[in-house]
Amino acid sequence: MDHSPLIIAGGGLVGLAAAIMLSDRFERIDIFEKREEPIFPPSMQARSLQLVISARGWRTLEAIGLSQDVLDHSLKLNGRMRHHADGADIEPYSVHGHEINCISRNTLYQLLTQRAEALPNVHIHYDSVVQDVFFEQKAIDVMHYGHKKYWKYDLLIGADGVRSKVTYHLNRNGTLSHQLERNNYREIRITENLWERDKFHYWHSPKAMIGAFPVHEGGFSLFLVHQNEHMLELLVQKDDSAFEALFPGVKDAVPDIRERLKHSKGGFLGSVNAQNWHHADNVVIMGDAAHAMLPFMGQGLNTGLEDLWSLSQIIDKEGITSPELIQSFTSTRRVQAGAIRRISENQFRYLTGKFTDRDYAIKHLADHHLINHDLPTTYMGCAFSLDPFAEILEREEKLYASFTEEQIAEELVRMGKATDDR
């Protein structure tokens, strides 16, 4: 039987960052990762190929000494560009000129893995998956290269993603839920620099959305989100008029885009809501294992890195964990995760064209009100501040509820006039 002071289930982005962050507080750290050594996934298909790093993520990356490396491999983006039949509109991320950074998932994997592997007390076990957790014995079963091994732990961190075994065992009583959207996600890499490289580009409609992030090495990473029932119409049948109508100019820029998207690996969008995040003072989950969310606010990874920051602060301050401290950590983080999950769902509806005209009018009113009162919009608060997500959501909901029907009607008229003028 093997023993480790700290076991981390999952050697993804959050798991690797956790090992680096906590490496000076534990004599030995063992990471169990399902990837086969030493391969970095070449495409990460069915997952976002590009990641956004904003304020919460930067704080953790700076703490582990990786911020400059990430900057060297990322692009600064200052806003979104919405493309439509009449041209394109720019939506700045911030009225103050703040920028987010975009980096490829694969590059960030490599930077974190290289840093973790250089630490003498961090041991990464590849082709290893946690199968079972025995809470009373403080032990796990690990399937390692096809053979089961039994490990004891002092502290177990579950960072093993959406299908986390640690999360499953913490929530065996039915307090774990997965919510899947009826939307398929596909992504491909385009080598040409087709659009402005300091912006995220998107085309949207209630049926489907295309988004394109610039890639640091050149070109774009282009993804399609479509409702399942529209697969035939958009990508399979020979008539491409529906695709061209929804995404004007895209097929002209990438003539074989339908064929490439059709043959790319599809994945479903969804979220995870786990009620139980810990056991006693020796098991805790974070990142997607605790709160996988729709990716349209760009806060999934950032929230996971903020989980890590919060846990490390507890360990730094107290030197040890206790049931009370872990309970405080998980209660606080669960509230914040629930808030950003709801904010991300709203952003998903906005970017995929599922807002009604009334929804757009209320959003316009809210954004104008906040900017006029020198307050951050919801996106700005999430991306460029460390304000709690729950406070940002509460402010938004109170503001939305404060507008009268007369104000909303007047904004609808202004929106119609702006469309006519354009």
Keywords:
41% helix, FAD/NAD(P)-binding domain, 27% strand, 16 helices, 422 residues
Q: Which CATH architecture of the domain at 2-41 and 105-176 and 273-346 would you pick?
A: 3-Layer(bba) Sandwich
Overall residue-averaged pLDDT value: 92
What is the CA-atom radius of gyration, in angstroms? Answer: 22 Å
Find the count of extended strands (DSSP E, 2+ residues): 18
Number of distinct helices:
16
CATH topology group of the domain at 2-41 and 105-176 and 273-346: FAD/NAD(P)-binding domain
Termini distance? 70 Å
The level-1 CATH class of the domain at 2-41 and 105-176 and 273-346 = Alpha Beta
The computed structural class is alpha/beta
Percentage beta strand: 25-35%
| Fraction in helix | 40-55%
Task: Label the overall shape.
Answer: globular
Largest sheet: 8 strands, mixed
> What's the CATH H-level superfamily name of the domain at 2-41 and 105-176 and 273-346?
FAD/NAD(P)-binding domain
What's the quick description here?
The protein is of the alpha/beta class and 422 residues long. It has helices at residues 13-21, 55-63, 67-72, 105-117, 165-170, 231-236, 241-246, 250-253, 257-262, 288-291, 300-318, 323-351, 357-372, 378-384, 389-402, 405-421; strands spanning 2-9, 29-32, 50-53, 75-77, 79-84, 87-92, 100-104, 122-125, 128-134, 139-144, 147-158, 176-190, 199-204, 208-214, 220-227, 267-274, 278-279, 283-285. The chain has 16 helices and 18 strands.
